[in-house]
Amino acid sequence: MPLAFQPSANIARMKESATIAVSAKARALKAAGNAIIDLGAGEPDFDTPLFIRNAANLALANGATRYTATEGIPALRDAIAADANRLVRDGPPVTAAEVVVSNGSKQALYNACVCCFGPGDEVLVPTPAWTSYYEMLQLARATAVPVFGDISRSLKVTAEQLAAAATSRTRGLMLCSPSNPTGAVYTAAELTSILTLAAERGWWVIADEIYLRIAYDAPAESALSLAPTRDNLIVINGVAKAYAMTGWRIGWSIAPIAVSKAMTAFQSHTTSNAAAVSQHATLAALTQRDEADAAIRHMVGEFRRRRDAVIETLRAFPSVTYIYPAGAFYLYVNVDGFEGAADAGGAFARRVLEKHEVAVVPGSAFLTPGWIRASYATKQSIAVEGVTRIARCLTEAR
Ligand code: PMP
Ligand code: GLU
């Protein structure tokens, strides 16, 4: 008789990633012949720039096939530090010793959560936030404390709101700007006041800057530029989004050396190093600056055109409320009250998929069930058609 699987206490409350589940469902429906418009996936639709793929081919030919140091090859850690130093304004430059290379920024975030937080610790999560923060904190046996942003501020939170949510058990906070799922971007003043509060209170700040280069109206600000100190700061970044390298699985953390050492030890037991060939590809991405900047300019320019087209489309539907998308590639649409459901976002996502063949992510994944997320990291005509169907589905119901 097969052994009945009883999920362990570690994962008893864990939920599958809703963002990944929506993409998987859309892919399966497409494979079955349905003409699905997939606005679920938070993934650039571009191929990795050719110069990066060429560097990977060369690295393979030269034998980049073995284990590397857990924390990454020295040249890549140097390149990441140099890249970060383009953002540091005051304070000591970032050194390679502060850098740990991981399997995607997802692993870097999980390393940070597990190493900095544990049982009894509360971690403030400006909400809505990317679904995996809540689950990673739970897997670290810490308590995620959602702090809800006001719609008048594009669902961003203020330092005052964070201070009001803090208790004697607060140990840190998660930051994400530009934001997944809203596309909102924190201003320098907003970030500075949050970073100052965290420094005063001795909270860890995990600043996820994976969308930093994808901002449309002004450059997005980095915690590396604004933090009064880096003693409590862990900055997460990676190549998945800006360099269209989701499948290569390279991300990193920049953290105080003691934290970096702990994260390296943790990673040495879970996955060891990120793939050697992917590290070499990333080295090219970060050191062949002119080519990289041109590729990013091209892709961000394309995302901007799509963003503008999507906003233009929504002008025809004045009753549809959404967060102004200043960065990343997401449109966060309010669907409160849809079909009278408590989980309005879930009801809407089901309806728009069944009746209009558009895949979106329900806001419940980001702890705001009255919303849905649509990704416009897809061809402009498809994004516009998808958003038109979303708006129609919503206005028909009102
Ligand atoms: N952070 C945020 C906010 C994200 O949207 C994603 C998307 N996957 C990640 C981290 C993880 O990215 P990756 O592991 O592919 O670097
Ligand atoms: N970050 C993307 C998203 O939010 C990719 C899927 C994931 O890793 O969550 O859709």
Summarize the structure in short.
The protein has 398 residues and is of the alpha/beta class. The chain is built from 13 helices and twelve strands.
Keyword list:
398 residues, 7-stranded mixed sheet, Aspartate Aminotransferase, domain 1, Aspartate Aminotransferase, domain 2, binds 4'-deoxy-4'-aminopyridoxal-5'-phosphate, alpha/beta, binds glutamic acid, 12 strands, 13 helices, 3-stranded antiparallel sheet, globular
Describe it.
By secondary structure, the protein is an alpha/beta fold. It has 13 helices and 12 strands. The chain folds into 2 domains: 18-47 and 292-396, Aspartate Aminotransferase, domain 1 (Alpha-Beta Complex); 65-288, Aspartate Aminotransferase, domain 2. The protein has helices spanning 18-31, 50-61, 74-85, 104-116, 131-139, 159-165, 188-201, 223-226, 257-270, 276-287, 289-314, 344-356, 380-396; strands at 37-38, 99-103, 122-127, 143-148, 170-176, 204-208, 233-238, 250-254, 330-334, 358-359, 361-362, 371-375. The termini are far apart. The mean pLDDT is 97.
